[in-house]
Structures are given as structure tokens and as C-alpha cells.
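Whiteboard transcription, Tuesday session. T.W. wrote the C-alpha cells on the left side:
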């Protein structure tokens, strides 16, 4: 029985660019045997789906419900050992999907709580209130602006903490790949992905867009490819 199933057109349209997730029979066998190898001791993925991911193309994504979506180009670009390593990385995410759901829930509550605190201390504390009254600003728009500023900065601060947690998880996922494939195969898989997708931190060129890059990079959940490779080199 084939393990990986092709996404239905409806599912593809929901998550991906429409159409095209074609693999040859040999490529499907390569993916199926990589999944079988990673699941040799116990089942990890709820479902393995082949699709065409938006954005970073040569990639795979594991969702909290333990479904993994593998871009057909990833299967095409990687050899058997590299694919085993990448599926070993994804297996870590599937095994620890609940943890990240917990992080997401806690961080959302933290955003709200710190946003409310920012509004309270900002708009309602006596010195600020006095100043606002004095300047004639203590009206609904001023309160709304303070609320917005408070919530936004809380969101940025919490976002940065969550990013740090996610990057640690990514490193652990890379090391989990070593339980299935070799460090060398994971390194060469990352090098292939970097060559195909480009570094996530350098999507835009130019001075101004370069700054945008760096800002987006602050919240990128994956460490840079170079950093990930350096960690793996210690295990070659
Ligand atoms: Zn990952």
C-alpha cells in the first residue's frame, strides 16, 4: 500500500497553489520508503501528503495534527538518504506538535495580558492621564491609540520569545534527523534546500528592502541554514 497520498484538488486549492503535484512512480517509492524507515519503530505521521507548497518550494511542513505535507520538488531534489533525514526532522515536529500548540496558546494569552497591562499603565496611570488631560488628549481616539500601541509592542515582544523557542525546536528537529539518517545527509539536504529556496533572510534585495528583510528575519522560526549546518557538522 502506498503511504503518501496525493492531495485532492480541493485540498490543494485550500493550502497551495492549484494543481501540479506530480511524482514519478520511482519518486513516490523513494518518499514511501523514507517514511517507512522513519516510522520503523512506531507510527509518527497521521498522514503524508504530497503537494506544491507556496513560497519556499523545496520543503516539507508538519501541522499540529501530525499531517506532514511534502512538496513534490523536495522528493525530486533529494536522494533517498537526504529524504530520510528530512523526514526524520519532520518526525520531531510531529512527535512534539502538542508542545508547540501549548506555546501558541500561552503566547496568545501573554499578548493579551501584556497588552492590557500596557494600556492600563500607559493610559490609566495617573501621570500619563494627567499629561493627556493637560494636552487635551484623553478621549476615545487617544485611548484607542494607546491600546493599539500597547498591543502591538506586546505582540512584537512575545513574538520574539516565541521565535527563540521555535528556533530551539528546529535545532532539536535537525538533531532528531540523526536518529534516522546521517549528519552528512542532513547537511547536504539543507545545502540543496538553501540552493533551491535561498536563505529566508535574503528574500529582498536593496537597502530599504534589506532592512525589511532583517525585520522579518527577527521572527523567522528557522535558524539560518549556515547555523543549522554548523550544528550538524559537530556530529559528522
Ligand atoms: Zn522544522
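and on the right, the sequence the group agreed on:
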Amino acid at each position: 500500500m502506498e503511504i503518501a497520498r496525493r492531495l485532492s484538488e480541493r485540498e490543494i486549492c485550500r493550502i497551495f497553489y492549484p494543481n501540479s503535484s506530480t511524482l514519478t512512480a520511482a519518486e513516490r517509492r523513494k518518499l514511501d520508503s523514507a517514511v517507512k524507515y522513519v516510522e520503523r519503530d512506531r507510527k509518527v505521521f497521521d498522514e503524508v501528503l504530497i503537494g506544491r507548497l507556496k513560497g519556499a518550494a523545496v520543503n516539507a511542513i508538519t501541522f499540529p495534527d501530525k499531517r506532514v505535507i511534502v512538496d513534490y520538488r523536495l522528493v525530486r531534489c533529494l536522494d533517498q538518504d537526504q529524504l530520510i533525514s528530512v523526514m526524520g526532522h519532520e518526525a520531531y515536529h510531529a512527535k512534539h506538535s502538542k508542545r508547540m500548540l501549548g506555546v501558541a496558546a500561552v503566547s496568545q494569552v501573554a499578548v493579551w495580558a501584556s497588552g492590557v497591562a500596557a494600556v492600563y499603565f500607559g493610559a490609566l496611570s495617573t501621570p500619563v492621564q494627567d499629561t493627556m488631560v493637560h494636552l487635551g488628549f484623553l478621549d476615545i481616539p487617544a485611548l484607542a491609540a494607546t491600546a493599539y500601541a500597547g498591543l502591538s509592542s506586546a505582540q512584537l515582544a512575545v513574538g520574539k520569545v516565541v521565535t527563540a523557542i521555535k528556533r530551539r525546536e528546529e535545532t532539536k528537529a535537525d538533531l532528531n534527523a540523526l536518529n534516522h539518517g546521517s549528519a552528512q545527509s542532513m547537511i547536504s539536504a539543507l545545502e540543496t534546500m538553501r540552493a533551491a529556496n535561498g536563505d529566508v533572510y535574503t528574500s529582498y534585495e536593496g537597502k530599504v528592502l534589506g532592512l525589511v528583510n532583517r525585520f522579518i528575519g527577527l521572527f523567522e522560526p528557522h535558524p539560518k541554514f549556515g547555523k543549522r549546518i554548523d550544528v550538524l557538522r559537530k556530529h559528522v
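Someone added at the bottom: Residues 5-79 form one domain.
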